[in-house]
């Protein structure tokens, strides 16, 4: 700014001096015109004619200079405003600023609550994240943690496995780097595992016992039998693979999908307490589990595919809020022809699949109902 001031002042003085010189020259020419001979007068007149076009240029330069001076004043005013803002911000301590942020987050959450759960209307084309592992397996991210947590868990195989790989980020998972290993105290069965709020929920091998394994403490927090649930390939999905018990998470919490002899092999959907693994409520969907390729929960609705092979589609939906069902016809592109794991992540609103040694995701399209303050 000081350099601009100096240059502006110097150039303005030059303009003023030049302008005065030209005006003085014009006056002298008029006074001395009679004493000059024709040749000298013509020479001076020609010089004057050459200089005359500079007059409007000089006027414009003066105008530009005034604009620069005005701009300089605005910069000074802006600097003063910024200083005032800085002093005002300094008046708040960390706790006050944190409280203001929490209040804004609460308001945002209240706005998001107006966007109700939706009905599935479409599934995108598959997006292949990685090709690794055997034909069967599961992979997932935490369905509840804050979005800043980008860890990925990877479990290859469908029975007797105990090794869980935890990758720091999705990029690390893609490259196969930066991971730690968890060795489960009990082997798993099937591929219907889910990570929810820092814990892995899975079916203990050769039993109908649900296990909750906490990653941070590397210990089993609780295990409980799902009374009457089939296991050990008694009531699997159509592809087999000890897929008798399938854990899921949606916007409403933790679920278990299985069947029993009492339900004649039809899919049972149960709400499960994530702390105790106690079954809170169950629904008999009436859909035979062995005829289902895979299934997943969205907003309290169970969606079932009619096959695990190529040509599969989302064929059946059971609504737990009304205990009703309908047959659907939602295309589902099974790119690698053998899906052995299919789960919905409500935090990311995508489907995770393990498809013939490929880890794949699908975006979903939901039809939302906007809740107004007058509605319950």
UniProtKB/TrEMBL annotation:
It is found in: Secreted; Synapse. Residues 116-368 form the Olfactomedin-like domain. One of its GO terms (cellular component) is synapse. GO terms for biological process: signal transduction. SMART domains: OLF. Keywords: Coiled coil, Disulfide bond, Glycoprotein, Secreted, Signal, Synapse. Pfam families: Noelin-1 (PF12308), OLF (PF02191). Residues 68-114 form a coiled coil. Disulfide bonds join 117-299. This is Olfactomedin 2. It comes from Amazona collaria.
């Amino acid at each position: 700014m000081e350099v601009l001031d100096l240059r502006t002042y110097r150039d303005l003085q030059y303009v003023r001096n030049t302008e005065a010189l030209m005006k003085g020259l014009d006056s002298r020419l008029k006074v001395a015109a009679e004493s000059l001979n024709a040749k000298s007068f013509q020479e001076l007149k020609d010089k004057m004619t050459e200089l005359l076009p500079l007059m409007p240029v000089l006027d414009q330069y003066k105008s530009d200079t005034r604009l620069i001076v005005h701009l300089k004043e605005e910069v000074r005013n802006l600097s003063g405003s910024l200083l005032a803002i800085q002093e005002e911000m300094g008046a708040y301590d960390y706790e006050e600023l944190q409280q203001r942020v929490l209040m804004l987050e609460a308001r945002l959450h209240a706005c998001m609550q107006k966007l109700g759960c939706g009905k599935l209307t479409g599934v995108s084309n598959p997006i292949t994240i990685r090709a690794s592992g055997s034909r069967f397996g599961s992979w997932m991210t935490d369905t509840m943690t804050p979005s800043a947590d980008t860890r990925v868990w990877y479990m290859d195989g469908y029975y007797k496995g105990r090794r869980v790989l935890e990758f720091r980020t999705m990029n690390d998972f893609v490259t196969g780097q930066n991971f730690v290993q968890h060795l489960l105290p009990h082997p798993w069965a099937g591929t219907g595992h889910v990570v929810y709020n820092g814990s892995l929920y899975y079916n203990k091998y050769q039993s109908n016992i649900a296990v909750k394994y906490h990653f941070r403490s590397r210990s089993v927090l609780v295990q409980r039998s799902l009374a009457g649930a089939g296991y050990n390939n008694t009531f699997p999905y159509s592809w087999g693979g000890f897929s008798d018990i399938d854990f899921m998470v949606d916007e409403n919490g933790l679920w278990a999908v299985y069947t029993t002899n009492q339900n004649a092999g039809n899919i049972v959907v149960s709400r499960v307490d994530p702390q105790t693994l106690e079954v809170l409520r169950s629904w008999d969907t009436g859909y035979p589990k062995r005829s289902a390729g895979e299934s997943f929960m969205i907003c309290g609705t169970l969606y079932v595919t009619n096959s695990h092979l190529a040509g599969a589609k989302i064929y059946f939906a059971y609504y737990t809020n009304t205990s009703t069902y309908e047959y659907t016809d939602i295309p589902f592109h099974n790119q690698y022809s053998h899906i052995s794991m299919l789960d919905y992540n409500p935090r990311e609103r995508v489907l995770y699949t393990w498809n013939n040694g490929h880890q794949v995701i699908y975006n979903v399209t939901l039809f939302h109902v906007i809740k107004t303050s007058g509605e319950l």
